[in-house]
Amino acid sequence: MMNHSDAHDASSTPLPRTPLCDMLDCRLPLILAGMGGVARSELVAAVSEAGGFGFLGMVREPLALIDREVRAVRDHTAARFGVNLIPAGTPAELLDQQVQCCVDLQVPVVGLFWDVNYAVIARLKAANITVVHQVGSVAQALQAQSAGVDALIVQGVEAGGHVSGRQPLEALLAAVLAVVDVPVAAAGGISTGEQVAQLMTQGAQAAVLGTALLATQESFAHDFHKQRVVQARADDTVLTEDFHINWPAHAAVRVLRNSVTQGQLGDPFTQARRAIGEEEGRPIYLFSTDSPLRSMSGDFESMALYAGRGVDAIDSIPTAAQRMASIMQSAQTHWRTLHRPEVEVSSPVCYAPAFERERNEALMAQLNELLEAERAGVRVTVQTLAQVSDPATRQLMEAIHHDEVQWCVMLLHAVRDMGGTTSQRTGAFFQKAMAIENVAERLAFLNRGQGWVAKRVAELLERVEDPALHKNLTRMLDSHKDNLTKVNEHLALK
Questions:
Q1: Nearest partner of 226 among 32, 7, 38, judged by Cα
Q2: CB count, 10 Å around CB of 72?
Q3: What is the pLDDT of residue 332?
Q4: Which of 5, 92, 260, 347 has most Cβ atoms within 10 angstroms of its Cβ?
Q5: Cα 425 from chain centroid?
Q6: Per-residue pLDDT reduced to its tens digit, 280-320
Q7: Which pLDDT score is estimated for 353?
């Protein structure tokens, strides 16, 4: 077993132990991203022994390697860990074998990414495997939740490697937290304790580290890649589709700029395949998604040098435990600052009257009622969009979906700002709406729901005194009135 001394200070952090930490059975809210090739047994064991949770990056890997790496982790730590698979990036036959391999090896946790594969999730759940799915949009998060995953990783566009969404992490995290009821971790350009503390304050239950742990001694990345990460800055990263071989079309990756991204090696999509390296007899092709690994040789400069925008804070190559301890020490300092108790100054004669507390409780109950209704609207629009092909209807549904997510976030923050607890329920309206098979009839029913919300908001505005909340609720009311008109006009044309 490894020595825990490097992470001793980290384990004394005052950051709360979250339900996700309980689910994964890790002491620290730090998760190693399941980076293909890079996250091998040495790094996974180091992260898990230091108190975090590690995912083996096993996308498209042969069964013998998965078996070897799983056994190697178990030889070095008794801690729980996971295996990361990517169904969309793996041939169907191999994927089927990989899933069965994880079942046979009794892997406790499997991470998934890219498209939501309902069949794979069901198969893993049937084997009592905990399933964590990384997502890049609210719609994907709701799809993964409906498929039965146990937790989500929300990936912002700042992330290195393959990036499925285009929203900044902070905005996407807020939106997903407002509409799902499973634990959520945050990913995308995270490399400092300050970021960890801020994201957990926002509601994330753990932070996922990719680039920060790629540049460690235990990482299986080649030293060339690690040194480039240390030398780089955020603006040296670029989102590109140039590295596409081995993956579905239009799958963007964030990498460090090199001869490929600068166009010096020609068009990535018209050239015949050309080997620029090899790994144990396997050719590494120009424009492939392979990144430089210890086991490779060749033209590393022309390979995919994955890196997130958090590279600014990475200036060395320590052990994984040392990097984690440094991040956690900073995180606990910033957590204390963010959660420093306020000093109450009260009158020696009287305290805040009871009726004011009762008024706030009543207001929070009404805001939570609206949150449940808007959350139902988000789910209705997501599931309806999956059934709609008509461009005009899709455009209208996408606009309503965007608005519903926006108001979920606003209502969630309003309740929390008042010191209340946000409801995790979804309004019964969702089930009623989805029972309507005809899309036009469902849209009409959705519009009646919009009308009900508009009426409730109008009534609430008469009693809200806080200027900021009043302004936000007025915007919400105007948005619903506007959508009511648009839907009525759309349905009149049908």
A1: 38
A2: 16
A3: 94
A4: 260
A5: 21
A6: 999 999 999 999 999 999 999 999 999 999 999 999 999 99
A7: 61
Three-state SS annotation for the chain? CCCCHHHCCHHHCCCCCCHHHHHHCCCCCEEECCCCCCCCHHHHHHHHHCCCEEEEECCCCCHHHHHHHHHHHHHHCCCCCEEEECHHHCCHHHHHHHHHHHHHCCCCEEEECCCCCHHHHHHHHHCCCEEEEEECCHHHHHHHHHHCCCEEEEECCCCCEECCCCCCHHHHHHHHHHHCCCCEEEECCCCCHHHHHHHHHHCCCCEEECHHHHCCCCCCECHHHHHHHHHCCHHHEEEECCCCECCCCCCCEEEECCCCCCCCCCCCCCCCCCEEEEECCEEEECCECCCCECCEEECHHHCCCECCHHHHHCCCCCCHHHHHHHHHHHHHHHHHHHCCCCCCCCCCCCCCCHHHHHHHHHHHHHHHHHHHHHHHHHHHHHHHHCCCCCHHHHHHHHHHHHHHHHHHHHHHHHHHHCCCCCCCCCCCHHHHHHCCCCHHHHHHHHHHHHHHHHHHHHHHHCCCCCHHHHHHHHHHHHHHHHHHHHHHHHHHHC
pLDDT at res. 358: 80
Which pair of structure tokens corresponds to residue 458?
């109008």
Q: What is the pLDDT of residue 12?
A: 46
Structure tokens at 450: 């919009």
Kindly give the parts of the chain with pLDDT less than 70. 1-13, 341-355, 494
